[in-house]
Amino acid sequence: MSEPASEPRDSTLDLNPKFDADGLITAVATDAATGELLMLAHMNADALAKTLESGEAWFWSRSRQRLWKKGESSGNVLRVVEARIDCDQDALWLKVDAAGPACHTGERSCFFRRVENGKLVRG
C-alpha cells in the first residue's frame, strides 16, 4: 500500500527553500573529508544567501535573534565545500572544511556526547 502524496514530488533543479513559520530552515554541517557531523543550526533567507555568496557558513541565532557568521569571534569559520538541500527543500546539508572546533565549547563537534543507558558519556 503506498502513502498518499500530500503535494507533488519536487524533482526539479530549482532552488526553492521551504522556510518554516519562523522563516528558518534547518542546516547540518559535516566535515567534507571525514563525514563527521559537526553541528546543527538554523538559517533564514539572509543567512542562506550570505552562505552561498561568501562560501562561508552563516546562520540565524534563535537565542540572540540575529544573523551570525560561524567563527566571527573565534576564527573557527566553516568553509563550505558543498551545499545540498533535501528532497522537500526544508533542510540543508553543508559539507565544510572547518578552520577549528565547530562547537562553541571548544569541542570539534557539537555532538561530543553519547547517550548510553539514559546517561551522557563523552565520545
Protein architecture, described:
This protein has one domain: Phosphoribosyl-AMP cyclohydrolase (Ubiquitin-like (UB roll), Roll). It is mostly beta strands. The chain contains one helix and eight strands. The relative contact order is 0.20. Residues 39-112 form the Phosphoribosyl-AMP cyclohydrolase domain. Belongs to the PRA-CH family. It is an enzyme of class 3 (hydrolase). Its cofactor is Zn(2+); Mg(2+).
Q: What separation lies between the terminal Cα atoms?
A: 41 Å
How large, in whole angstroms, is the Cα Rg? 16 Å
SSE arrangement, N to C: EEHEEEEEE
Provide the helix percentage: under 10%
**Strand percentage, roughly?**
35-45%
CATH topology call: Ubiquitin-like (UB roll)
What is the 3D shape? globular
Write the layout of secondary structure elements.
Layout lengths: L24 E7 L5 E7 L1 H10 L3 E4 L4 E4 L8 E8 L5 E8 L14 E4 L2 E4 L1
Parallel strand pairs: 1-6
Antiparallel strand pairs: 1-2, 3-4, 5-6, 7-8
Short summary:
This protein is mainly β and 123 residues long. It has 1 helix and 8 strands; from the N terminus they run ββαββββββ.
